[in-house]
Batch of 3 targets.
Target 1
Amino acid sequence: MGAHLAFLDESGFMLKGTVCRTWAPRGLTPTVRQKYRHDKVSVISGLSVSPKRHSVGLYYQVHEKNIQRPEVLEFLRQLLRHLRGYVVVLWDNGGIHKGDPIRAFLKQHPRLRLEHFPGYAPELNPDEGVWDQTKKALANGRPDTAEELRSFVLEELEVLRQSQSHLRACIHTSDLPAFL
């Protein structure tokens, strides 16, 4: 019997948005006005691949503050509630992914196995594609409040979650060897 693979990562979205190149009529340079505030939204997500059908799923949680170990543990609980059978999580070597609370959680959940990507290798994690696609979709936007930013992020993540082709693109554009 196979195991679900789940690629996990965290990211932050600042109220001061990302600006990227865009189209405009000749001579009319577009202007994006922004309020310079430090509000942000933090998101943890997991891109899962099922063992039998090889379907790809996206799970996420949004937080108003930086994600710490308790939020990671809660996300792992949520992931285990949704995925049946064994689950292998692949993630980076972040400090919030290690320590006694993580080891205790593993002892309580024997169907979960945690594996780390090599250090400084974000290009191997397909979940980085989730952040790339979401941040590109939000580029040149102008939310005025943290709540608007949260709504935009949730909306874009939900659009991504509904598209098998976009989720598969996250896997195919990573530097992992082809397996789907």
Target 2
Amino acid sequence: MVHGATATLQSFAATYDRVAERTIEPGWISRGVARVRARALDRALISGADPTDSRQLAARACKLTSPSNRALLATGIERLLAAAVGPPSRAHLAPQRATVLSQADELRGLVALLRGQSPLYARGLAMLGDLLTDGTGPVYRGQPEALGSRLEEARCALAG
């Protein structure tokens, strides 16, 4: 009798897992729309939108929290640090060297966090991506205090 109950329970669990996976994971259409609208969705997440509010936000949050995106952000921060100490380049927008170097320890800490295994929130990951790509932001046009403030805000958002 116990064997029958165990088999029924396992069957129920397997069915539940399949239904949950289809319900929770965004479909290919949502993922495609999220890819096209990535910047707008990132801005919404940065502003505090709940990723469960729409399928596109959920799909973007899945992409942002993926191991490949975390590695991409970590590499971007490492390149930013290298650009701050290396020779100037005419081919790329140069970061504010003094600003970036003043926050080097915090940036290295974020790299370690991104390369780690702890779960991170999509809002914080979107904030980091915005810092790296916004040519008018504190990395490229700001004061050390402004970058420090944004990095602290991103770190807090990463943890939830």
Target 3
Amino acid sequence: MALEIRKIESAEESERKRKRNTLILSILMIAILLFSTAGYFSMRENTSTSTSNKNVENVGDSWVLKYGDQSLRLSNSPESAENVSILMFKNLESYYGKTVYVAYENEVQFYEVASTLGRYTERMQPACYGKCEKDFPEKTCNDTMIVIKNLNETEPGKSKIYEEDNCLFIEGNLVAVDAFIYKIFGVN
């Protein structure tokens, strides 16, 4: 067995090596601290956006909302529906097992409501709010009713949802309809 003999260092040389090692270790510790902090905040940002809409997923050109064992297809993302002013207290139980009348100007809006909320009602029935020329029953706010009114597309940010007696009014385009559905199912 051969023993290695260590070279005798001067005090200056020993102090210089100690300072160099301390500097390298300090730089390494600061780098670890910075990267772990940055990683923590990037994970937090990703989690907050995904947990707020954890039941909604983009599938092709539509958005799928998972509610219980049901998959509900919508045309717009929850983020695009965030700018709709919503003042309503109704929830899914407000419509559960009831006949819900829907007055609409655009059939796509009716089908969006009927294909999602209609699964939980007794029946979704097209109707007129007040007098009309269509061959639909004429209803008032004494009945459970959803009234969808189109707004001019050039007025962004004017969409709103509000209640009056048993009526729920949706003023806007399909984004406003989806905002209502997201609200009913607890997403926004």
